[in-house]
Each structure stands twice: as structure tokens, then as C-alpha cells.
Amino acid sequence: MTSPAPDALLGAADVRELATALGVRPTKQRGQNFVIDANTVRRIVRTAQVRPDDVVVEVGPGLGSLTLALLEAADRVTAVEIDDVLAAALPATITARMPERADRFALVHSDAMHVTELPGPAPTSLVANLPYNVAVPVLLHMLATFPTIDRTLVMVQSEVADRLAADPGSKVYGVPSVKANWYAEVKRAGAIGRNVFWPAPNVDSGLVSLVRRTEPIKTTASKKEVFAVVDAAFAQRRKTLRAALAGWAGSAAAAEEALVAAGVSPQARGESLTVEEFARIAEHKANQHQEKEPV
């Protein structure tokens, strides 16, 4: 692999110059904050443990700061960009700054939430700077849609990072924590200061590492069935599970029956349960349905 020129990555002046040339103003609507520090993007790539044989998918590449650093380290990179102007400009930026790697880059001009397939080999890694307003749904969609993604590193608002990596019993443990844990082992992987972005956001950012489970959660319930329990439990998180799951189960008594069968106290709250416990609760209802169906 030919080493790219040392100045191939985008610095603060490069980012502003590119943005001016394209007439781009970062928008709050899309949560656009462009990384302007080459050391930060290299640190992200190192933390993501990107390998020379990796096929990386990047969501929201923007002007290409992280994309170029990923191309330095990976076998190939596919970027998914929703913005018309940014999507149109990115291939030219790659060709201009890293011509020897341009054939290793592919662009998908689409909303990541609607992406169901990607060009080229199956992705092995997801690395992205995700806008906080769509971070969790985009992350969960990509993990569900592309099971070959083994390692993920996302940069998100610090509060979102805390939620994703929270353990049962934590005040911020909730739907994102449980659903992310369905797919992967999740942990905080560092903090990112505000001054590496343009414009500087009003919030701190954090890195979250997700390593896909080698063995899926052992359950006879489907993901949809398990996630339905999770959603119900946290929709009324102050209530006991007996009360919170009454609508899902059909009645408080039915909810209590499912909880007891799963070995969970009906007086517990959703924030104390592991993903495995949610799966056991879902299993009980799924099994009941099977028993009631005529042979």
C-alpha cells in the first residue's frame, strides 16, 4: 500500500476553504459539525482499530475529514451522505488529496436510515461522526442491516454516549442501552473536545465502541418481540414492570405472570434489567401464543 502524502488530511484552513468553495454553511438541522483537526481523526481511526483488510462504512462523511483518515488505514471505505452538495463534492476531494486510494472509495448518496445494501464487499467496520438527533436510530439500523459489521466506533454527543454504554441500574440506562447491547458489547472509548469542530458545538462529544457479540443472545423470541418489551418497559420507566408491561401483556396480571416466569420481580423497573432478562420476558408471551394456536 502506498503511503499517502503527509498533508492529505484536512486541517482547519482546508475545511473552511472547501466549505467556502462549495457555499456550505453547517446546518443545525442536520447536526453538522465538521472535524477540523487531523490528529483527532487519526485518533478516531486508531481507537476504532481499523485494519488494512477492513471494509469500512462511514455515515455522514461531510467534507471528508474522517474519510481520508479511514482511507489511509482501511482496504476500502464506503461513505453514506444525505446532503446533495456534500455528496457531489466528496469524490473530487478524495481524488485530489489521496489519488492513489481513490479507487478504494465509494459513495452512497442516501439517507442512512434507508440504506439496505452497499456497493462492493460487505462492510466489516462502521466508523462515523453521527449527529446527535439521529445517532441512535442510525446506529441501530446499520447494525441490524449489516450483520458483517464486527466493530463499530461512533462519535456522538457525550450524553448519548453515556446512554449507549450505560449498565443496568444506571440512571441513564434505557432503550438505546438495551438495544445496542442486543447486538454488541458496548463501552465508552474516550472524549472529544469541542474545539476540534467547526462550528464548535455547545455540547461535549464522546466515542462509543461496539464489538458485535460472537454469539447472539440465546432466546427463542425474535428481536422484534424483545424490542417490544423494551419499548413498553421504558415508555413508563417510573412504574414497576407489572404496571409498565400491562398494555404489552394484555393486563397487569398477565404481565406479572410473564415476569415471574422469566425470574424477574414484578416490582422491578426496566432500568434494572439486562437484555437477557428482557428476552426471557418476551419468550414467555411468544410461547403462550404458540400454545394457543390450533394444531
At a glance:
The protein has 295 residues and is α/β, with parallel strands linked by helices. It has helices at 12-22, 38-47, 65-73, 84-97, 135-145, 158-165, 175-183, 223-235, 241-244, 246-249, 252-261, 275-292, and strands at residues 34-35, 55-59, 76-81, 105-109, 125-129, 151-157, 184-192, 197-198, 205-212. Helix 5 packs parallel to helix 7.
Write the layout of secondary structure elements.
Blueprint: H1 12-22, E1 34-35, H2 38-47, E2 55-59, H3 65-73, E3 76-81, H4 84-97, E4 105-109, E5 125-129, H5 135-145, E6 151-157, H6 158-165, H7 175-183, E7 184-192, E8 197-198, E9 205-212, H8 223-235, H9 241-244, H10 246-249, H11 252-261, H12 275-292
Parallel strand pairs: 2-3, 2-5, 3-4, 5-6
Antiparallel strand pairs: 1-8, 6-9, 7-9
Helix pairs in contact: 2-3, 5-7, 7-8, 8-12
Keywords:
single chain; 295 residues; alpha/beta; 7-stranded mixed beta sheet; 17% strand; elongated; rRNA_Ade_methylase_Trfase_N
Number of strands: 9
Segments where pLDDT lies below 50 for 5+ residues? 1-5
Helix content: 40-55%
Main sheet makeup: 7 strands, mixed
Question: Strand order of the main beta sheet, please?
Answer: 4-3-2-5-6-9-7
SS class: alpha/beta
Choose one word for the global shape.
elongated
Measured between the Cα atoms of the first and last residue, the distance is 61 Å
Q: Number of helix segments?
A: 12
Order of helices and strands: HEHEHEHEEHEHHEEEHHHHH
β-strand amount: 15-25%
Average residue pLDDT: 92
| CA-atom Rg in angstroms | 21 Å
